[in-house]
Amino acid sequence: MKGKVVLVTGANGGLGVFVAQAFLDAGATVIGTSRKVQQSDFENPAFTAIPAEISTPEGASGLVDQVIARFGRIDVIAHTVGAFAGGQSIADTDDATFHKMFDLNFNSAFYLLRAAIPAMRKAGDGRIVAIGSRAAMDPGPHVGAYSASKAALVSLIRTVAAENKDAGITANVILPGTMDTPANRTAIPNADVSKWVQPASVASLVVWLAGEAGKDVNGAVVPVYGKDV
After folding, report:
1. Cβ(28)–Cβ(46) below 8 Å
2. In 43, 46, 63, 184, which residue has its Cα 20 to 30 A from 8's Cα atom?
3. 3-state class (DSSP) for residue 170
4. 223, exposed or middle or buried, with CB in 10 Å at 0-12, 13-18, 19+?
5. Are 19 and 1 in contact (CB under 8 A)?
6. Which domains does the chain have, with CATH numbers?
7. 219: alpha, beta or left? (left if phi > 0; alpha if psi -120 to 50)
């Protein structure tokens, strides 16, 4: 990944820190974004923190403009932003929860890609890798808003793949099962974490899809379920 400019969303999140570090380890120039990302999150001169609110059109386009102005291009977008809410049936799901799930799990990707794709098409190359969820393909009870937002993300990424293959851009989505993050360990304290997906494994897959070896993979929906199959 040497010489590549990589934008990682959610760069200081439970998975994002692994993804950003994996790209840094591979020699990329990494721009990390989130609402509260800081330069001190990564002690690497190849890392640049740019805080942004990408669930709004203005925030997403402003971020892309900053990256293009400072680095000239975006070679890779690794989109790890997301959130989880559950515990309510569809009949009981309140508006705030529904809108939050779509803002963070779908709108953020839509606004970011809408802003970034023109520059990537102009460059004639690019890799887009988004993080979905097993729930997108295997929904369960009481997580309806979350599952629907992740399913919409899958459709979005596959559409982007189809629309931009002529410009040398690939777009793929990874669907992890429950990941072994501090937040999940806190939320599910008695779980068998040996079955959970390791964030480092997902990060390695993201880098592979973004690199030369993954150039022929496009429009893929990749399940990563760990031992909980």
Report:
1. yes
2. 184
3. strand
4. middle
5. no
6. 5-224 (3.40.50.720)
7. left
pLDDT for residue 228 is more than 80: no
Average pLDDT, stretch 128-156? 96
> Would you say residue 28 has pLDDT above 80?
yes
Tell me: pLDDT of 229 over 70: no
Give the CA distances from residue 61 to residues 8, 107, 122, 171, in Å, rounded to whole numbers and listed in that order: 15, 13, 16, 19
d(CA 144, CA 160): 24
pLDDT exceeds cutoff 70 at 122: yes
Q: How many Å apart are CA 129 and CA 84, to the nearest integer?
A: 19
Q: 187 CB contacts (<8 Å, ≥6 apart)?
A: none
| pLDDT value at 60 more than 90 | yes
| Cβ atoms < 10 Å from Cβ of 73 | 14
CA distance 145 to 187: 18
In this prediction, residues 160-171 reach a mean pLDDT of 97
| Bridge partners of residue 172, in order along the sequence | 129
Q: How far apart (Å, rounded) are the C-alpha atoms in residues 78 and 112?
A: 11
pTM, full prediction: 0.94
Best CA proximity match to 135, nearest among 145, 143, 144, 147: 147
Q: What is the DSSP secondary structure assignment for residue 209, as one 8-state letter? A: H
Helix, coil or strand: residue 150: helix
Separation of alpha carbons 210 and 136, rounded Å:
22
Phi (first) and psi of residue 74, to 5 degrees: -130, 115
The per-residue pLDDT for 86 is 87
